[in-house]
Structure to design on (87 residues):
């Protein structure tokens, strides 16, 4: 992220289905059939440039959501003081 003329510009890395599959260690078919439109949403996680059929996934959004989802689903570990910590 950097500033241009007082406007915050967020860098976006666009990946094909195959490139995303490589990064997250899923097969491209799983991304297309199980994740697309149930976990990965058009306009949020991916776009269709120029209204075409090709999908481009936005890496920074996917990476952030993967981390958030993982932390939200981490088990709670009881602590000696009565509080809980994510494990």
């Amino acid at each position: 992220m950097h500033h241009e003329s007082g406007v915050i510009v967020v860098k976006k890395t666009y990946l094909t289905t195959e490139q995303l599959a490589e990064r997250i260690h899923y097969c491209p078919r799983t991304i297309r059939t199980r994740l697309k439109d149930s976990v990965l949403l058009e306009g949020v996680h991916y776009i269709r440039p120029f209204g075409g059929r090709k999908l481009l996934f936005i890496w920074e959004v996917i990476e952030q959501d993967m981390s958030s989802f993982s932390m939200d689903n981490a088990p709670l570990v009881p602590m000696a003081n009565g509080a809980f910590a994510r494990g």
Summary: The chain has three helices and seven strands. The longest strand covers residues 2-4.
